[in-house]
Structures are given as C-alpha cells and as structure tokens.
Q: What sequence folds into this?
C-alpha cells in the first residue's frame, strides 16, 4: 500500500486560505498556479504627462507623442489623445497597450450609441463617471488598467476637465496634469489661473506650450513633438504634431 | 514568471511598395549556452504573412501556432487571403490578454492584395502599431542610433528612400549581432511580395 504525502486540500477561494496551510493574505495563494492571471502588473510601453486647462469657451488637453519602453524612446509618433465624440476628448498616460484597449472599448461604445439613433451622445461628465467605475473595479480585482486619464470636453455651454487614475481616484479641476506634469506644470498653470480667473483660447494654448517645453527640459521620458486637442462649442479638434523649440542659451552662460 | 524580461534576438522588418523584407539572427540561448545556432525566427503564419519572433522561444512558437491556426480557418471562411492587419490583430489579442505570462515581442509583416506590404509591431505588453519599419529583440537596442542615421538621408526622395531602406536590414542586423551576446549565427532574410516568398541566408563571409 502506498503512503503518499498528504495533499493540500483545495483552497476555499482563489488566493484564499486552505485548511492546515499557512495563509498569507495578499500573497499568491494556493490556487495561484491554477487560475489564469491576466493582470497588468508592470507597464511596458508608457506615455508620460498629459496636461489639461480650461479656458473661456472650452478646454484644451495636450500630450506628447512618445511611447517609452523603459528608458528607451521607442515609439516617437504615437497619439495619446483620443477624440471620443464632438463634445468629449481624453488623453492617457501610462501603459499604451491598456490605452489601446480602452480606446477600443470607448470607440465601440460611441458606435453603439450612434446606433440607438436618439440624438444623444455621451457627455464628458458621463464618460468620466463611467471610466471612474471601470478603473476602480479593475483595481479592486488587482488587475488595473495602468493609465492616468484626463478627460476634457465642452457640453451644454460648460467646460469639463476631469482626472481618473488607475486606482479609481477621480476629481475635476480647472487645470490638470499627470505624471511629471503634476510636479512641474501644475504649479505654473495654477499660478496663471489665480492671477486671471479665466483665459482665452490663445492664452490657454500659450500656457500649455510653455508647460510642455518645461516638461521637455526636465522630464527624461518626454519628447518635443506633441499633440493638442481642443473642445469648444464647435466640436473637438485634435491638432498636431506640433514641435517644441528648445532654448539652450543658458548653456553658454555656464 | 522568473525569466528575464528582455527578449533575446534581433529581428527587423521593412515595408516597401510591393511587399516587405524581414530579417532575423539565428541564435537561441539557454542562459549563456547557445542551444540552437541556426534557428529560424521568421515563421510563416500564412502564405504571404510572416512573424518575426523575439522573446521566449516557447511562448512565441505557441502564440504563432495558435495564430496560424486561426488565420487558416479565417481565410477559408473569407475565401481570400487574410489581411496582414488581421494577423497582427490576432497576435495582439493573445499577447495583450496574457501579457503577464508571456515574454513575446513580435513583428508581423506580409503582403495582402488590399494594402500591399505592411509591417505591424506587437511588443511586450501587447500594443499594436503599424510602422514603415520595425526592429525588435535585445539586439535592437544597439542599432537604434544606426537606424536613425540610416533612414534620415533618404527621407525626402521616395525612390532613393526605398533602396536605402531595403539595403539596411543586413548591415543593421550584422551590427546588432556583433554587439549583442544573445544574437548571432547567420542572418536569415525573407522578401514577401505578391509573387511569393523568397528566402536567403547570409552566413560567415557574406555577413556585412
């Protein structure tokens, strides 16, 4: 008669405790090798900051056109901005494959809505709210979409600018920035808005360009080609590629 | 998974007016031992569609087999040769869904009657991008500079650009193989056009 090793009883739930076994909550459970993993645990090709600014009559968002593979500037003309419909646009930083997945889902949603033919289209607030739920639910399954998204739009005479990140943290603000932009560009943008309570489109553009230039100087994962998407009552327009002129005069002073 | 995330290989694909040219080195390593020095990393998934495989040999072979099966089925249903874009999308769907388990950097290249020669890249992480030319694998890091320089002069004149482009894969691959320990052996090239697939091997004295 064979005496084999006592086999571990099956776990109560995936990653959960099994009787008689040491249970490490959060660590890979006894069922770790049994069920398929489909989680984004590490971003691969990533995009850096996205900036957003509200102005009088609309919203402008901007992102550079680069996908970094670690420190390698691997893809230098990819678009990280998405025009959802005539009232809404979004820009994403973080994993580009997850952004492409999101783009697929959103594009299909917009098509399905067109098919309803009731004249309604998604408002920026609706997209923001929906995306927050998606991102939060994914994070709750420890399988996040590794992106930080800025949603901008102009709907019913009001500008909208919202932020959602991979944890499901969501808020609205008159200026937004993700990644390095949050440290470098956000203070600048807020300072300008404190002095002038509302900007014109041109002033907003200039502010964005200034901030993108500073990010190009100081963010090692940035690039000097970028796109800009502007939402006004006329609709959403994606402009680009625009190139930043860098000023290196100070090099001569040192 | 415990394997190193950096793909082992140099692979390259270039698009031109009538088709594509693809190339790869021929070394498969287990750690620092060369398990196979005459590997064929250019794998057909259909008559005029190939994939260049980098990363884990097991993963890429498995995914390529699955895609070849799906494509064969699809082309029977379609009753015409499948689009290169379809093949690329099939790769992407698998590579994105199983991104945490797979170590696969793939370049899909081929010819179809609709859009001619096309090159699509599906790097690790599972994004899909169409590019006029693409490189991949650990050896590719060493030749980004070379490629940037090689492709700039031809930019303004399309005719010259094509000859320049098509002449780039052998020297580019040779340079990468010289510097990357995980790439080496012979250069395998294939040209895919409407007429068919022409394969060549550059070995030893023929290496640029």
A:
């Amino acid at each position: 008669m064979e005496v084999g090793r006592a086999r571990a009883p099956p776990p109560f739930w995936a990653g959960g405790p099994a009787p008689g076994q040491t249970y490490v909550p959060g660590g890979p459970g006894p069922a770790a090798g049994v069920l398929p993993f489909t989680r984004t645990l590490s971003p691969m090709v990533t995009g850096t900051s996205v900036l957003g600014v509200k102005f009088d009559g609309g919203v402008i968002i901007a992102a550079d056109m680069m996908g970094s593979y670690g420190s390698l500037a691997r893809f230098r003309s990819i678009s990280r901005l998405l025009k959802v419909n005539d009232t809404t646009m979004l820009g994403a930083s973080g994993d580009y494959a997850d952004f492409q997945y999101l783009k697929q889902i959103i594009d299909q949603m917009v098509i399905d809505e067109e098919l309803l033919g009731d004249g309604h289209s998604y408002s920026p607030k609706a997209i923001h709210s929906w995306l927050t739920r998606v991102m939060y639910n994914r994070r709750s399954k420890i399988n996040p979409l590794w992106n930080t998204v800025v949603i901008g739009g102009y709907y019913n005479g009001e500008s909208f600018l919202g932020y959602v990140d991979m944890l499901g943290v969501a808020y609205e603000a008159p200026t937004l920035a993700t990644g390095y932009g949050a440290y470098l560009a956000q203070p600048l943008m807020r300072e300008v808005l404190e002095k002038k309570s509302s900007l014109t489109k041109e002033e907003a553009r200039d502010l964005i360009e200034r901030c993108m230039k500073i990010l190009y100087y100081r963010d090692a994962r940035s690039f000097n080609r970028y796109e800009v998407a502007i939402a006004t009552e006329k609709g959403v327009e994606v402009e680009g590629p625009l190139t930043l002129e860098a000023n290196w005069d100070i090099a001569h002073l040192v | 998974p415990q394997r190193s995330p950096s793909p082992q290989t140099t692979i390259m694909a270039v698009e031109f007016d009538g088709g594509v040219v693809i190339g790869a080195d021929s070394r498969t390593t287990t750690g620092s031992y060369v398990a196979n020095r005459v590997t064929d990393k250019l794998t057909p998934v259909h008559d005029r569609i190939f994939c260049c495989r980098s990363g884990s040999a097991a993963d890429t072979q498995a995914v390529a087999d699955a895609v070849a099966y799906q494509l064969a089925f699809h082309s029977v249903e379609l009753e015409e040769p499948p689009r290169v874009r379809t093949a690329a999308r099939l790769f992407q769907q698998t590579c994105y869904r199983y991104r945490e388990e797979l170590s696969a950097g793939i370049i899909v290249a081929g010819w179809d009657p609709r859009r001619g020669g096309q090159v699509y890249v599906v790097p690790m992480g599972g994004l899909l991008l169409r590019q006029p030319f693409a490189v991949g694998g650990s050896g590719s890091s060493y030749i980004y500079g070379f490629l940037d320089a090689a492709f700039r002069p031809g930019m303004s004149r399309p005719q010259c650009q094509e000859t320049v482009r098509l002449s780039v894969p052998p020297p580019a691959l040779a340079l990468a193989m010289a510097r990357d320990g995980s790439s080496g052996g012979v250069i395998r090239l294939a040209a895919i056009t409407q007429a068919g697939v022409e394969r060549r091997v550059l070995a030893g004295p023929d290496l640029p």
In short: Confidence is low (pLDDT under 50) at residues 29-37 of chain A. The radius of gyration of chain A is 22 Å. Chain A has one domain: 45-240.
